[in-house]
Amino acid sequence: MKLYVLDKKGNGKIFIRSVARSRPALAQKLGGNMFMSNGVTYDVNDVFAEKGSDNTALGMLVGGVIGALGGGPGVAAGGFIGALLGKEQDKKEDAEVAEFNGSTA
Fold first, then answer.
1. Which of 12, 21, 51, 63 would bridge with 78, disulfide CB 3.0–4.6 Å?
2. What tens digit of pLDDT does each residue of 4-35 get?
3. Which residues in 78-92 are b (16+ Cβ under 10 Å) and which e?
4. What one-character DSSP code corresponds to residue 70?
């Protein structure tokens, strides 16, 4: 999960190098609700979360590569198992993003 604010100068997203499960947890990490980025003051309630990566595709790729040791059937089985594991990680990350975005400080 990646945290970001929308640049008040209109230059897109500014990613934050902190990790937190909620906005109150982020405020505690930052030492308060207000913080500065690129010379602009933001409130932790301005922070949003998004998924960090697509774990399903990555799991399928890694599983397929590992499965290559077992030939064709190994690639298929490895890719399938990797996709299942990656999909579970995606679900977990989706829940974490929803938890963060639903919180207020």
1. 63
2. 999 998 889 999 999 999 999 999 999 999 99
3. bbebbbebbeeebee
4. G
Facing residues of 36 across strands? Answer: 41
Q: What share of the chain is helix, strand, coil (3-state, %, to 5)?
A: 55, 20, 25
- φ, ψ of residue 61 to 5 degrees: the values are -65, -50
Per the listing, tokens 């945290």 go with 3
54 token code pair: 């697509």
For the chain, the straight-line distance linking the first and the last C-alpha, in angstroms and rounded, comes to 19
**Two structure tokens written together for 45:** 């309630």
At 71, the pLDDT band (50, 70, 90 cuts) reads confident
